Fold this protein.
Amino acid sequence: MSREAYAQFQSEADEDKELYGNPKPGIRFMSKYMELFARCGDFREIKFNDKSNVPGSLTMTVPDNEVWEEYFYGQSQYAVRPIVVDLPGYQTVWFTTTFARVQDRRTRKKFIQIVAVSPLEFLNWVRIFPNAWFPPEFQWPKEWSGFAPAATLLSMALTPNLIRLQAPLWSIPSGDLLDPQTYNLFRNAMWPLMVNPRKKGLFDGTPWTAGVARMDKFMDFAQDVCKTENLEMTMTWFNPGEHPQPFPEFVTLTRPTMVVDFEPMGDPLAFEGNAVGGLIRTGIAMAKDAIEWITYPILNPNDPDPELEGIPVYRNGQHSTIDHGEEVTHIPLATRATVGGKSPDWLNQAIVTGANLLLGVISSAAGSVIPGFPVLQLGIFEDQVKDVVMAFHSQEDLRLAREAGPWRFREAFGESSVTGLSLNAYASMKTTLFDHRGYVSQSVEVSNGAPYYVGRDLKKGKPCGYETPSGKIRVEKLTEISYEYSRTVRGRFTLQIGSGEAEREPGQLALGKIRKIGSWLTRVALGA
């Protein structure tokens, strides 16, 4: 490398370090209509965790002065207060959930403490109606169901329910009742949230999957699909005049809008990005599973080199840029999944009809021998022959079972009852096996720009590698980006590579289980 080329390279590296190294955030406080209220440069500290497929959180403190007095206590008490945080190549939006005025008599300082959540929290407050186009008092069919490419399936579940809530279809509008635009259902249906219409339907190359829901939280439903099909839920804020139009070929947005999308984060290799390609990929994935069961351990293909695939890899060693690294191996808790509980309705009817027919034949035969013999029918005993044939299905991951050995934990049962001989049963087994799988997680702390930059090289949900002390490189999703800027910490990022579920605090684990139980109780209460 010549001196001129090296000097240019060093100059560009210095510019990147200046821009991305330890950035100070630009913070905007917005009104409930997403209009700028004021920029904030006098904050005391700010911390946030931007998580993959889970709502993140933000905490910050600002001085209790005239500006923030007006923002927090001059507006309507329960008005939504959005916050926009701008970092180089990396913008996040947060929605205030609590704010508190704090006064410390010892230090004679007054400040306002703020807690906020990421936009993914919106999806916790959308229920999947069996039929979003009908009023709540009349819901037919009994359940919402779909079979489509994964991203399209989630769009099919979310879009009608956003329209139901935002238009609104069957209730009095919540805006200015004297404004004619309040009654414009077409204008309001896709605002303030809408689903990205690109790469859906025939243009969706994600694997095909099935889904059934009945008043489930959309977030719970989407998380199951995303983790099994390797999708990333994204919420991208569009602000007219600040951002380019996200999909001008479909619609031109004129108001601040939160665009929901489901982006594939899996193997970039493969097929055309359309529904046919996704269906082929789904079939090959199922065939590959079956082939692996048969051929393991005869075939053991080598893993590709992550760096050749363009994946950022943090190296270990004496000159490593990793400040702190932790690798946790989680042993699988089950290698077999059993799901079900209900036979298909047509099979139940066939069994009841057949049993009654058999009893009728027996009655006729007995009546010819014993005059006056009564006609036999199941009657109150019908329930004894229902849900006994093809009601349950069981599948074992033979590759994992052989690897784990005979002393492994054996079986897990799906939490929600599903109908046998259905695509939903297959999806439920897949989800159950995933929930109890073995996996390796990494927690890596790095200084931004050593050697990759958040916002330039790293993105939440994208693959990221980490070299273990043994020299192996493990590649998993970048599941969390944490950021802190305060008087003692100047723009520090902490990255979580891989699933950090086992490293969560007990309270968080309990909360996650309570949410799943809540979803199950909803189905039980509704008789699903």
In short: The first helix runs from residue 3 to 20.
